[in-house]
Fold this sequence. Notes:
Blueprint: H1 17-32, H2 37-42, E1 44-46, E2 53-56, H3 66-76, E3 83-89, E4 92-97, H4 99-112, E5 134-138, H5 150-168, E6 172-179, H6 184-196, H7 199-204, H8 206-223, H9 225-239, H10 243-266, E7 273-276, H11 282-294, E8 298-301, E9 304-308, E10 316-320, H12 328-343, E11 347-351, H13 357-369, E12 378-381, E13 386-387, E14 390-391, E15 394-395, H14 399-415, H15 418-423, H16 427-444, E16 452-453, H17 456-459, H18 467-483, H19 499-502, H20 505-527, H21 531-547, H22 559-582
Parallel strand pairs: 5-6, 5-11, 6-7, 11-12, 13-16
Antiparallel strand pairs: 1-2, 2-4, 3-4, 8-9, 9-10, 14-15
Helix pairs in contact: 1-3, 4-20, 6-8, 6-9, 8-9, 11-12, 12-13, 14-16, 16-18, 18-21, 18-22, 20-21, 20-22, 21-22
Amino acid sequence: MASTLPSVPDTDPSTCVFDAFRTAIAKRVSEALPLTLEQAYSGVDYGKKGVDFTIALPRFRLPGKVDELANKVISKFEPDEWVESVVHDKAFLHFQLNSQSLVRKVLDQVHALSHLTPSGLPEYGTNTSGKGKTAIIEYSSPNIAKSFHVGHLRSTIIGAFLANLYKSCGWNVIRMNYLGDWGTQFGLIATGFEKYGSQEELEKDAIKHLFDVYVKVNKEAEGDPNIKIEAAKWFKRMEDGEEAALVNWRVWRELSIKKYEEQYEILNVHFDVYNGESMVGKEWQDKALARLDEMGLISDVDGAKLVDLEKWKLGKAVLRKKDGTSIYLTRDIGGAIERYEKYKFDKMIYVVSSQQDLHLAQFFKILELMEFPWAKNLQHINYGLVHGMSTRRGNVVFLDQIIKEAAGVMFDQMKQNEEKFNAVEDPEMVSREIGITGVKIQDMAAKRINNYTFNWDRMLSFEGDTGPYLQYAHVRIASIGRKNPELLPLPPPSQINTDSLASMSHAREIAFLLGSYPDVIKVALKTQEPSGVVTFAFRLSHAISSAWETVIVKGEKDLEKARARMFLFECARDVLAASMRLLSIRPLERM
Length: 591
Ligand code: ARG
């Protein structure tokens, strides 16, 4: 008996069928207790293990004892196509969904929304909450000629995830890389390049060569103070826009970006805009200084300009050097204003290490003091440190070393099982993808702010909740179609009877997890944490693996049952792949 459900604002059963189940629960509760449908709805939470949904009665602050309230709901309760049962447990009401509807409706929805959207993610799980809004997400942002350290790697990984996440929620996303391509160190490199530079080396690997030059000239500068003076003069000429001082620098920048782009591609990370500190105009940097001066916050120390933010417990900071050249902080202020002028963003996110908390707080505060109404839409997404990052060859300074090491360690490990190794079609590609997945999962498995220690062995093991395990889980489920070709293609869902799945607890559990995926994305947007998505991917992998022995496809004689199971696994594979793609991981088909 189908009953139509009332609609609750900000829910969308057509993309998240759990919204409908929650509405069905809320409807009963609002009919039994003096609550509006919306109030009741807001109290419907996921249950603990073994319970579908739970309501904590005290949260409604209703008059009367909890037991009486619970009895009111229970005495009126009759099972229907949505909700099967309710039990009272202390302050809680636990609801179980009708298993047949759960399986049917979830699988139908996953299937109906399985096509890929332009962002490369399937529609299932996505929502349109950000429709019409623009977000700039700035991430990676390495410094040309300095090392690409793990801090940049974290920014790259977390930023790529956030960009996918915002897109999944309907935002128009501008993925921006803000290169450290300006500053006194370029005066230093220019000085050093005259002595140590080689055009040939530069073309071979610009990032490495510039780093080498930088290290050499830095060392020399330690013994010879004239070098720093030279360098500062050179940078001043650059800031003044003197063409002769800029030609080389321009080539360095271009070659470095080219090299980075290759590596980002390997990581499945993409940018819409390569911005950089060098591109920030002077105009707004000057205006910012003038405005802060008016407010009496600027002092002159030996010709340098200092802003005093003590009032907000943000210390003092130099805004302009004695020779008039800009610094990191001023460029960030000018840069934010220019980005607003250009993109009129609704939100701008900076994915930068927590080591720069003070820096970001300072320039956010300055923009607020300048009374830009959009200053409140800036957000710093920070993250903790990574310890112990070294490869078999020593300390890591370049991104390509990290990629090579991950691929190499994985390659060696795969080789140990000769039989399996020989069966892999493209072991180089496979080991690289698994290695990168290991690095990414290790990075996103815990809350961003936590520090962690880089551990090649652990992250590249197939045991435990690791990247390789996740790829393995996907490969295994992807193989099910290859192993049962006679079942494919499946008939349209309306011709598949899923009733047999409802009574199999492992199948039901998979369906429940699939149903929760749109909520996983919504929660991730709220917390801006990748860890919830990682947890989801592992829970789904575990549920699939537990189902393996009982929800059998191969060898099931009853064709109707075999098809239903195949349908379940195909849906599970789609959602597992979607969650991996959201984390910027490319799911493998074979390994
Ligand atoms: N290039 C900087 C660094 O490596 C990170 C830039 C962060 N973004 C910003 N807008 N300040 O430390």
